[in-house]
Amino acid sequence: MPIERSERLFINLSILMLVIFFIAVLVSAFIGGLQVPAPAGTIDPAAINQTAPFDNPGVRELVPGKRYEVVMIAQTWAFIPGEIRVPAGSEVTFRITSRDVIHGFEITGKNANVMLIPGQISLVKVKFDKPGEHYIICHEYCGIGHQTMYAKIIVEPAPQAAK
Amino acid sequence: MHQREFARDDTYIKWQLGLGFAALFLGILMGLFQGLDRMGIDLYKYVGLKSYYQGLTIHGVLNVLVFTTAFNGAFLPYVTMRSLKRPMAIKGGSAIAFFLMLVGVLLAAWKILDNSSTVLFTFYPPLQGHPLFYLGLVLVVVSSWVTFLNILLTTRAWKQDHPGEPLPLQAFISLVTYIMWFIASLGVAIEVLVLILPWSLGIVEKTDPQLARTFFWLTGHPIVYFWLLPAYLSWYTMLPKQVGGKILSDPLVRLVFILFLLLSTPVGFHHQYTDPGVPAGWKAMHALLTFSVFFPSMITAYSVVASLEIGGRKAGGKGLFGWIWKLPWGDPVVTTQLLAGLGFFLGGVSGLINASYNINMVVHNTAFVPGHFHLTIGTAVTLTAMGIMYWLLPALTGKKLWGRGLALANAWLWFLGVLIFSRGQMAGGLEGMPRRTWMATATYLQFMETWDIPNKMTAVGGALMFLGGMAFFAVMVGTLFFSRERAKVEMPTAEAIIGPEKGSPLFTKRLDVWTVVAIVLVLIAYVPYLVNYLGDAAFVATGQRVW
Ligand code: HEM
Ligand SMILES: [Cu+2]
Ligand SMILES: [Cu+2]
Fold this sequence. Notes:
The structure holds two protein chains of two kinds. By secondary structure, chain A is α+β, with helices and mostly antiparallel strands. Chain A is built from one helix and ten strands. By secondary structure, chain B is mainly alpha-helical. Chain B contains 18 helices and four strands. Chain A: Its main location: other. Chain A: InterPro entries: Ba3_CcO_II_C, CcO_II-like_C, Copper_CuA, Cupredoxin, NosZ/Cyto_c_oxidase_sub2.
């Protein structure tokens, strides 16, 4: 291929840039531990109320003050539960599925983002270091009430006793 | 020359352009509504639309499904005929393509307007639109296949008359664009014909939304290259001529388009980084491939800027950047495209963020995404198409362009508008503002002061873009009805410094080989995943009408 000198230089630079980008992504994924969501099981949306753990949505304490699991159902147009309280410094695993259409799950101020697809179970892990409030917002169009679909996370100051 | 032989196809090319730009007109009108919604101004009720989402469905379907397909289906056959100096091979092919598209658009529009198909342009099941809505979209795609076949047969016929010669560059690019699109469109064809239509007709009760998304995005990423490549065709092979420059290397341009053919199809999973039903390994593989599509775009940036520089220096430009001011900024054909290219640069950079495997989690499905694609499709492609119309309409009608000042205003208003609009959307997205949301009535809006300025920027920027768009339509209408002077305009075709004969025949002549490679790559990127997924597919979702 007849290519000019400056052009060749530019092409080589582009390739170098791509390699650097990709290494950066891999490093953050496999060394930094920033992982994208992956399959966490399937479920029949019609049988959610009879299928554990979704028959009993809510916050579960795994290691007091440290690790929590939130079992959550998304449906038009609410997250159940709609309000979650966890102490600062806790790592929370959200296990979520949808009862009807595709919904989205995103936590303001956090790198937590996953689609909720009927038939699939979604899993997201989030660490809440500081006390404060976050919102879980549905970010996929799910019908006429899409803009009203959210839940609230209240991160409470860590109790002294749990330290 | 050849005007008489082309007349038969040109008639339908004109009609198809008319259809495409009518779609764009209504599309950006809805865009204005969406922007103003962010300041609490509700215009939907005055035009009889039931909701923001009905308007958004119109916006998405008309802009990115109808306008783009209609424009490509007119522009690329036009280019093919002029570049090969022969009419299209299928007699009546242009007419068939036009009527298929027309019927398709009318069906889809009818079912959107009666609010039975407010499913947005992505129509993810289990949201369930009316069967005629899907059928309408199918016809639009089938129309594009007719155009593909027509271009393929036309280039074939040319080759038989010119054995051993490489196709002229512009015909080559038109053909590659449609080969790519044909391969890419099979995903959504399977989705609609196999999964959605039987289900929306009630023949099967349940469907698998995760599977449908996978087929959708198999088409959904490369479709952006179907939108983009005609703009690239113009930037690479026409713009240099329009600024008095030259193409650096014809074989390199061909290589770039072959790379697009190979790399744009097997990367759809990067739209599904956050889908629960796709293993992380596939996502990582598609991330790698996605980054590689950046490579031909980088070469494009270099080559196009270099050929512009040749023009600017010839006009007396000195110094590192001096040539830029010497470009013909007074010519709307040029200014639209230069600003479109500038917008594309910003859009491309923001696209790298979306594409980044895990950084994507910050912005996925937030307002950042429309911020990104209004720079790319909404500006790089649309503004270039408008710039193309500034010579194509005179070429087709023989009338001199009317309202040159308005045409320049179109370029600058749109560009300024999209900078503000996209800045607003991106800033909002980084603050967690979701996309596709009826903002004025959002119940969480009260808690989000940080969205205040982004929302205002979206509204103001969007209104400026809309004004720019109206300037464009004024020029089109003015040229058609008020232009008194005749003009003889020919398709611009730039010369190449290094001609095709210098390149290896494998790159300049063997498109068949690359087509096979492209298909194999798609199979590698999808078949193992699909086989594995189908093992425990979840056909569990019933159709919902929740709007
Ligand atoms: C006056 C010009 C335009 C304005 C003011 C405008 C404004 C907007 C706004 C505010 C949104 C909604 C974002 C949301 O709710 O998430 C949007 C979405 C969108 N726009 Fe535009 N837009 C314009 C032109 C265009 C053009 C020319 C195209 C493509 C050719 C385009 C393609 C899209 C697409 C594909 C969506 C996403 C629809 C969806 O998510 O379903 N827009 N636009
Ligand atoms: Cu929702
Ligand atoms: Cu929603």
